[in-house]
Write a structure and sequence with these properties.
By secondary structure, the protein is of the alpha/beta class. It has three domains: about 140 residues, Rossmann fold, CATH 3.40.50.10800; about 120 residues, NadA-like (Rossmann fold, 3-Layer(aba) Sandwich), CATH 3.40.50.10800; about 80 residues, Rossmann fold (3-Layer(aba) Sandwich), CATH 3.40.50.10800. It is built from 16 helices and 13 strands. β12, α14 and β13 form a beta-alpha-beta unit. The protein binds iron/sulfur cluster. Its EC number is 2.5.1.72.
Length: about 375
């Protein structure tokens, strides 16, 4: 186990880890009653030099200042499409800011207001582990027939591995399209790092069977698999998952159906397979927003995704009954590290001429990551 794997969230110093580091400098206290005015003033002072991107799972106090809101795919496109803003404040998590840095011009600078805003799923696949897996596939003679497909929710190092080995990035919006592309190119897919998105898409969208999928455990020799299991598999799924979406269970679906007759259950494909199978609708964050917003007044929805988004959907659709699928609170704790004090601090620092929390991806890593990201954007 390497040192970075032992770091506690927000402590220590390892920029290579999604767990990040603590921020330097004086942050305004969250009790400061002038935070909103300070944010308005700093944003006005930066003017067109700044663009604030806000992921749907962000807190309301941050989202109110976002110029563009979206899921990771929409925000990656937004970062790629715009070339004027000098500073992009990425109110999301570390891997999203890395992708924005890769997709924007060298003149543009990407700022992550809190460096400790990482992603537990992205941390479940390290470059060493993935390289080791690939070497095992090479020894078995199947690497040349295997196409890596990597979920957006991964470090730049894993995206770079994907680009270097002829693969593509995918998101929950385009996972089916990317898997179809990969199977037209090779016989097997190595799907990183979210096992659930890989399995759900392969089985429910491509018609593969559960037996076509095997699970690669990076902590075990040969991924914990036999040679025959690897040779016979079509999908080699990495053993990673989202700590938020992984919480929803079949039992929570049964419970809400009993409690709210006529309720429709809508879940994200990062949920476990059995949860997705028992749902009425499955879709990316953008699809969930679209399905709920366009449904007729009086519709009843139980939503299985991050709680900030579900609360916002409930506020914005008062004519519908919208409940959270799980009874226990389920925020993305790392995404929620970005709060108004961090955004104010980052913007005010730049107004004062100090660039803080810049996310800069190594040139070689950026080159191959961009190959894989461009492949996705071209599909
Ligand atoms: S919701 Fe899950 S996948 Fe998304 S940033 Fe949080 S931990 Fe990562």
């Amino acid at each position: 186990m390497s040192l970075s794997e032992l770091l506690v969230l927000g402590q220590g110093s390892d920029l290579a880890s999604e767990r990040g580091v603590s921020c330097t400098g004086e942050l305004p206290p969250s009790s400061d009653p002038h935070l909103v005015e300070r944010a308005i003033a700093a944003k006005a002072a930066l003017g067109s030099r700044a663009l604030i991107l806000g992921h749907h799972y962000q807190r309301d106090e941050v989202i109110q200042f976002a110029d563009i809101t979206g899921d990771s795919f929409k925000l990656a496109q937004a970062a790629a499409d715009q070339s004027s803003a000098e500073f992009i404040f990425f109110c999301g998590v570390h891997f999203m800011a890395e992708s924005a840095d890769i997709l924007t011009s060298p003149k543009q600078r990407v700022i992550l207001p809190d460096l400790a805003a990482g992603c537990s799923m992205a941390d479940m696949a390290t470059a060493n582990q993935v390289n080791q897996c690939w070497q095992e596939l090479e020894k078995l003679g199947v690497a040349s027939r295997t196409v890596p497909v990597t979920y957006m929710n991964s470090s730049a190092a894993i995206k770079s591995f994907t680009g270097e080995h002829g693969g593509t990035i995918c998101t929950s919006s385009n996972a089916q399209k990317t898997l179809e592309w990969a199977f037209a190119k090779g016989e097997k897919v190595l799907f990183l790092p979210d096992q659930h998105l890989g399995r759900n898409t392969a089985v429910l969208s491509l018609g593969l069977s559960l037996d076509d999928c095997v699970l690669w455990n990076p902590w075990k020799p040969m991924g914990g698999l036999t040679e025959n299991q690897i040779l016979g598999a079509k999908m080699i799924l990495w053993r990673g998952h989202c700590s938020v979406h992984g919480r929803f269970t079949r039992e929570s679906i049964q419970e809400v159906r009993t409690r709210i007759p006529g309720v429709q259950v809508i879940t994200h494909p990062e949920c476990q397979h059995e949860v997705v199978v028992d749902s009425d609708v499955v879709g990316s964050t953008e699809r969930i927003i679209q399905a709920v917003s366009s449904s007729p007044a009086g519709s009843k929805w139980a939503i299985g995704t991050e709680l900030n988004l579900v609360s916002r959907l409930a506020q914005n659709n008062p004519d519908k009954e919208i409940v959270f699928l799980d009874k226990t609170v389920c925020y993305c704790s790392t995404m929620n590290r970005i709060d108004l004090p961090h955004l104010v601090w980052a913007m005010e620092s730049i107004v004062a001429g100090h660039v803080v929390n810049e996310i800069k991806v190594d040139e070689r890593v950026a080159k191959y990551s961009k190959l894989a990201l461009d492949q996705m954007l071209a599909l």
